[in-house]
Amino acid sequence: MLSINKNKWSWLFLTSLKGISQVIFIENAISGFIILMAITIASYSLGIITFLSSLIGTLIGKAGGAEEEQVNRGLFGYNSVLTGMALYLFLQGDERWFIALAGSAIAALFTAAMVHVFRPSGIPILTFPFIALTWLLLLTTYRLVSFKISPELTPQSLSSWTLNIKGETDWLEGAVNGIGQIFFLEHTLSGILLFIAVFWAGWRLGVYAVIGNIAALLTSYSLGGEHSLIFIGLYGYNAILTILAVSVVFKGDSRYGKITGIIAACLTVPITASIVTLLLPYGLPALTMPFVLCTWIFLGARKVLPNI
Questions:
Q1: Is the overall model pTM greater than 0.85, yes or no?
Q2: What is the chain's percent helix, strand, coil content, to nearest 5?
Q3: Mean of the pLDDT values across residues 155-179?
């Protein structure tokens, strides 16, 4: 009996780590542990939220009777992880711990619902449950006093918006921060650890992550993006996720998957700029919506054009 309980705790711990690694399409507990360390180095409290959010998503998937393979792969953890982290970072007040963890639980339910809705299309849900739920909960701050939004997310009028592309150009920081922003991090050591986590799971994943980040840096710089945003990685993280999805994870039998993945990574830059502008009057962050839209475009197109 003691052995069985130990096995259950071991399974829960390892699966929760996989839930963290699945944020970047990795099913590897060691990579998940490295990612958790990268987050904890940057913020101890954020590390706790990250692990608890994955734990909650995993337990809901298991208790809810989801397919065992999906639960064991950590597929009920990653949207919960991102939701918990985002709500903890973008809200303030004593209630944000509870709201973040409650949000992670709702994210698991939302994930299950979206899997059912998207199943006939064969298109993956990606991080859409996290995006939609986080936006909705952040918008409640304007109507419900218990939800207090961070002052960093201040609505701005487009009529008074001015573009300022000046600023420092630190290519090394940009190369590291791109992957860090997937987990809302702007921390050099954390970024390095995240790359290590990806390469640990597979050298191809690591190489494509580097290529995606470089593509975003060069594209955003050449198109005249704001330097402050480019080099803190806000154009890079969506590109990294997109190239991994299009060129590796959901490549299928695509003949030109390597090329289209790079094109998709570059396309995330103008899409990011558009979504950031669209959300400016609401004070909402773009999150991973550019990645989701761009990936859906290419994976949807492959249903008709299988070689791309």
A1: yes
A2: 75, 0, 25
A3: 85
Looking at the domain covering 163-302, what would its CATH class be?
mainly alpha
Helix (H) / strand (E) element for 232: namely none
Sorting pLDDT into bands at 50, 70 and 90, what band is 27? very high
| CA–CA gap between residue 207 and residue 195 (Å, rounded) | 10
For the chain, what is the radius of gyration of the CA atoms?
19
Q: How far apart are CA 251 and CA 246, in angstroms?
A: 6
Q: Is 44 exposed, middle or buried (0-12, 13-18, 19+ CB in 10 A)?
A: exposed
Question: What is the structure's pLDDT at 5?
Answer: 65
Distance CA 4, CA 1 (A): 5
Tokens representing residue 208 in the block: 């494509």
**Percent of the chain topping pLDDT 90:** 87
All structural domains of the chain with their residue ranges: 2-149, 163-302
178: amino acid identity, one letter: G
Instruction: Please tell me the CATH code under which domain 2-149 is placed.
Output: 1.10.3430.10
